[in-house]
Specification:
Layout: H1 10-18, E1 55-56, E2 62-65, E3 78-81, E4 89-96, E5 102-111, E6 120-125, E7 128-134, E8 143-150, E9 155-163, E10 169-178, H2 184-206
Antiparallel strand pairs: 1-4, 2-3, 3-10, 4-9, 5-8, 5-10, 6-7, 6-9
Length: about 210
């Protein structure tokens, strides 16, 4: 049976009352206009429903409305609850990418850190693990992971894996952005500068 942390404060109850059923709100990640992840803040599904645009492998993961059982989202009104017990369940989405392009990856997570919860959280990009941690400690506020990975094809699977046997593990605001690359003009100037340095060095060596 899942353990729910009892959080004090009438503010939470008031917050729940202010959030209508099926409400949609903008998450922090929605402000990122080049984010490749659809439904990045899990705002497009009602309470306890599968997450739109994401594929749940085993059916344990659900969208939660902020304030459910006293737990809050990182931003917006909703978040992803990774509810698998005794097994790791994955939430995945196929992104349109460019082979050879590097991408920055970011997400926020929260764990109740209860003893003997067998917590596990991971994220992979195109089969490459970018984050993996077992027995996550309690996080008083959402913690953020940031990393980078390179796409190897035009379609890359982003996968979140989670397990928390007796407690709760939440994820919110998932972002995947192409990293900035030098403009062609900048590369031309850099190449021209290097060529001039080489030619000057040769002239000096002749004298």
């Amino acid at each position: 049976m899942k353990f729910s942390r009892i959080l004090s404060g009438l503010a939470l109850a008031a917050l729940i009352g202010l959030i209508p059923a099926g409400a949609e709100a903008s998450s922090l990640c929605d402000a990122d206009l080049i984010n490749l992840v659809k439904n990045c803040g899990f705002e497009l599904s009602p309470q306890n429903a599968p997450t739109l645009y994401w594929t749940d492998a085993l059916g344990y993961n659900k969208t939660w409305v902020s304030g459910n059982l006293g737990y809050l989202s990182n931003s917006g009104f909703e978040m992803l609850s990774l509810g698998a017990s005794g097994v790791v369940d994955t939430e995945s989405q196929t992104l349109t990418t460019v082979a050879g392009q590097a991408y920055s990856i970011s997400f926020f997570y929260w764990s109740d850190g209860l003893p003997a919860n067998n917590t596990f959280l991971s994220m992979s990009f195109g089969g490459t693990t970018v984050f993996s941690q077992a027995n996550l400690p309690y996080t008083p506020v959402y913690a953020q992971f940031t990393g980078t990975a390179v796409a190897t094809s035009s379609a890359t699977v982003l996968s979140i894996g989670g397990r928390n046997d007796n407690g709760y593990l939440l994820v919110d605001d998932v972002q995947v952005d192409p990293t900035a690359s030098p403009e062609p003009g900048s590369m031309f100037l850099l190449g021209s500068g290097l060529l001039c340095v080489v030619m000057a060095a040769r002239q000096i060596s002749k004298h």
